[in-house]
Amino acid sequence: MSFSLDCLTQITILICATRILFRPQVLRDVESIDTSTTILGKRYDIPMAIAPSAYQKLAGGEGEPDTARAASALGTNIILSSNATTSLEDVASALPQRDEHYPKPWFQLYFLNSRDLTTDLIQRAEKAGYEALVLTVDTVVLGNRLHERKKPMKLPEGMSMANAKSRRAGGVSKAGLLLHAKTAADFKELVDEHRGTLTDMSLRWDEVIPWLRSQTKMKIILKGILTEEDAQRAVEAGVDAIIVSNHGGRQLDGVPSTLEALPEVSDAVRGKIPVIFDGGITHGSDVFKALALGADLCLIGRTALWGLAWNGQKGVEDVLHILERELSRTMALMGVARLRDISRSMLGRARKTGFGVAKL
Predict the structure, then answer these.
(1) Which CATH topology does 5-141+203-359 take?
(2) Average predicted confidence (pLDDT) for the chain
(3) In this structure, are residues 161 and 173 in contact, taking their beta carbons and an 8 Å threshold?
(4) Is the pLDDT score of 267 beyond 70?
(5) What is the phi/psi pair of residue 208, to 5°?
(6) How confident is the model over 15-53, as pLDDT tens digits?
(7) How far apart are CA 56 and CA 126, in angstroms?
(8) d(CA 298, CA 317)
(9) Which residues are 220's β-sheet partners?
(10) Catalytic residue from among 101, 247, 283, 321
C-alpha cells in the first residue's frame, strides 16, 4: 500500500488532533450558543470559511459558483483560487446581494514574475468587488509532488484555468513542468523559458508588501505562515491578516501540521491581526480546538469539495451545516456560549510520562 504526502499529512493532522484532550467546564449557561464572529470588520455567522481550492469543476456541480453561493447562504465567505475553473468575475456575479456588514469574497494570488500579469489579476479582482487579496507565500516552486511527476494533471476538454489565460498549456500549469526537470541545468532552462508565467522566487518582505499596497486598496493577507519569526515579520510589514497553512502538506515534507504550528504563530501575533487557520478541519470539534489555540477563523478545503461532489451547492451547504451543528454542540458541552470565551486552558494533552492530563 502506498500513500501520497498529502494523505500522510492528513493522517498526521488527525493524530495530532486526537492527542489534544478537552477539559470541559460545567454548570455554565449555554442555553443560547452564538457561533458568530467578526473578521476585518465583517460579520461571519460561523467561524469557518472556504479555503482556496483549484479546479473545483472537477469535483462537481458548477464548481466555484456553487461553493461561493453556499458560503454566502451560511453567512460566511470564500477565497477564490487563482487557478479556479470559473473566472473571478463570474464567481462574484453569481453571489446574491447581502447586507454590507457581511464580507465580500477574497481572491488568492500567486505572484508571477511578470508584474503586468500580476497587476492585471489584482485589478480584475478589485474591479469585481473582492474584499481582500490573499497572497500565497509558500509556493516559490512546487513541492516534490511524486504523483504529479508520474502523471501530470491535465484538465478535461472544455475546462480551463479561467483566471490566468497566460498559464494555460493544454490544461497543465507551467509550474508543473518544473517537476520533470532531471538536472539543475534543465530546471534553470525551463525557468528561463517560462519565467514570466512562473511564481516570482525573488520576492522579499521589504518590497512585495509595499508594492501590493501601491496596486490595490484591498486588504492584504498572507497564506502560508508557519513560524513565530514570519508571523512577527507579517505584523511588522503591516499586512491585514495571516493564514497558518502548509498547503495541504503538498509543499515541504517535514513541516509540522498546522495545528502544531498554530500556538507559536498566535502567541507571536498577540491579537494584533487576525490569525486564520487552514488544514485538517473535518469536524466541528476541530474548529473548537483551533479557536482555543489562537485562531480567529478556520478554513475548510477538501471538506467543502466533498459536499460539492455530493450535491453541488446544496452539498456544500450541508457540510457547513454539519460543522456548524458539531461546533455548537461542542461549545455547549465545553461550557462556553460565545466564541470569545474559548481559551487554551480548555485543552490538554496526555502526559508523556506518568498518568493524567497536562494543560496546554
Answers:
(1) TIM Barrel (3.20.20)
(2) 87
(3) yes
(4) yes
(5) -70, -40
(6) 455 689 999 999 999 999 999 999 999 999 999 999 999
(7) 22
(8) 16
(9) 133
(10) 247
User: Which run of H or E residues covers position 299?
Assistant: strand 297-300
CA 293 – CA 93 distance, rounded (Å): 36
DSSP string, 10-61: HHHHHHHHHHEEE----S---SS-B--EEETTEEESSSEEEPP-S-GGGTST
The angle, 0 to 180 degrees and rounded to 10, between the axes of the packed helices 302-334 and 284-292 is 70
pLDDT of 192 > 70? The answer is: no
Distance from C-alpha of 226 to C-alpha of 221, rounded to nearest angstrom:
14
Judge contact between 279 and 245, C-beta under 8 A.
yes
Three cell numbers, residue 33: 450558543
DSSP 204: -
State the number of CA atoms in the 13 A half-sphere of 106 facing the CB. 31
Neighbouring-strand partners of residue 300 = 50
Mapping DSSP to helix (H, G, I), strand (E, B) and coil, where does residue 98 land? Answer: coil
Specify whether the CB–CB gap between 49 and 77 falls below 8 A: yes
pTM of the model: 0.87
Residue 280 burial (C-beta neighbours within 10 Å; 0-12, 13-18, 19+): buried
Extract the C-alpha cell encoding 158.
472544455
Active site residue 247: yes
pLDDT in tens, 86-144: 999 999 999 999 999 999 999 999 988 888 889 999 999 999 999 999 999 998 776 56
- Please answer whether residues 243 and 77 qualify as being in contact, where contact means their C-beta atoms are separated by less than 8 angstroms: no
Q: Tell me how crowded residue 314 is: count the other CB atoms within 10 A of its CB.
A: 16
Nearest to 144 by CA among 16, 261, 247: 247
Calculate the CA 124 to chain-centre distance: 21
The alpha-helical segments, DSSP class H, found in 182-283 are 184-194, 205-215, 228-237, 258-269
Nearest to 62 by CA among 300, 311, 306: 311
Distances, alpha carbon 78 to alpha carbons 126, 249, 341, in Å: 15, 21, 26
